[in-house]
Design a protein that fits this description.
The protein is an alpha/beta fold. The protein contains twelve helices and eleven strands.
């Protein structure tokens, strides 16, 4: 048994998992932490991450590093994803993290992020013959087509909930023209990304034998709302099946509410009340595009995949 921790520095949320890892690749979580820092606030590809967002994120990571001292954790694996890999000052931010917290951060490519997400999801769900895994993030959306748990094709689409919300949804609640613009923008991104990437690997609509699986904050939050959770329970979220109709009903209800009222909805994590609308819309577009009527949810994903992958690699001095 090996004890280790993984940290995911995302565009919207920074998360940490401390777990015991067993040789068979199973995990026993000891502690989970998450802080919404909006690292990608106001960011667009090729620009710089803003100083206020950097400071918020550094503060969260500093708190994580102190928390790790309470556990005997010999190995810590920290990664950064969409916003950091696309930012001009992404590498500088990682250096600041190391200087301030002692945490070494690896910037993942889109392909690496997809591979590790798949590993984490497959550790929590039974592998289907063919699966399409969806991870909707703050700055990008990852799609992984897998057969029996092994990747066949991946796509990293440069569209995420933080960017969509900041650029398109300014009214409270969103106006009808804004929601129409949101739909048009999502449609545009998916057309550009999927026409070439997936048309030869997975036809539209997808065959009935393909299982759709969703992970990460947007989709797990939709599951928690559907389950009316007053306290988030990972084990209940994993394997929960969300119908396309249920997602559409949640989107319709939340889009009609002012942001403050959305904070009263059971299952909606504070800090996601603006992001859940573009997230649900993006998921619905993907389901419509591929012809899926339902999606199976996995609480496990990138954090778990990082640890499983680290166990499989030889330890270096």
């Amino acid at each position: 048994m090996t004890r280790a921790a993984s940290i995911d520095i995302g565009t919207n949320t920074i998360r940490m998992l401390i777990a015991d890892i067993y040789p068979a690749g199973t995990l026993t979580p000891l502690r989970r932490e998450r802080v919404i820092t909006r690292l990608g606030e106001g960011f667009h590809a090729g620009a710089m991450l803003g100083e206020p967002a950097l400071r918020r994120s550094l503060k969260a990571l500093d708190a994580f590093s102190h928390l790790l001292q309470a556990y005997p954790v010999p190995r810590v694996h920290a990664v950064a994803t969409s916003a950091v890999r696309e930012a001009v000052n992404g590498a500088d931010f990682c250096s600041r993290v190391t200087r301030q917290t002692g945490l070494a951060v690896k910037i993942l490519s889109g392909a690496e992020e997809a591979r590790l997400t798949l590993a984490g999801v497959m550790a929590s769900l039974r592998a289907a013959d063919l699966s399409l895994i969806v991870d909707i993030g703050g700055g990008s959306t990852e799609l992984i087509l897998a057969r029996n748990g092994l990747p066949l094709h991946t796509a990293s689409i440069r569209v995420g909930v933080v960017h969509l919300s900041e650029k398109l949804l300014h009214s409270d609640p969103p106006s009808q023209p804004e929601l129409l613009s949101l739909d048009a923008k999502i449609h545009e991104h998916l057309d550009a990304a999927l026409a070439d990437d997936f048309s030869s690997s997975l036809p539209f609509p997808a065959p009935a034998s393909v299982r759709l699986i969703g992970t990460a904050g947007t989709i797990t939050t939709l599951a928690a709302i559907d389950l009316k959770m007053t306290r988030y329970e990972p084990d209940r979220v994993t394997n929960h099946v969300l119908s396309r109709a249920a997602i559409g009903a949640i989107l319709h209800r939340l889009a009609a509410m002012p942001r403050k009222q959305r904070t009263t909805i059971a299952g909606l994590e504070p800090g996601r009340e603006d992001l859940i609308i573009p997230g649900a819309a993006l998921l619905l577009h993907l389901m419509n595009r591929f012809g899926f009527e339902a999606i199976t949810v996995s609480d496990a994903g990138l954090l778990e995949g990082i640890l499983i992958d680290a166990l499989a690699r030889p330890r270096t001095a």
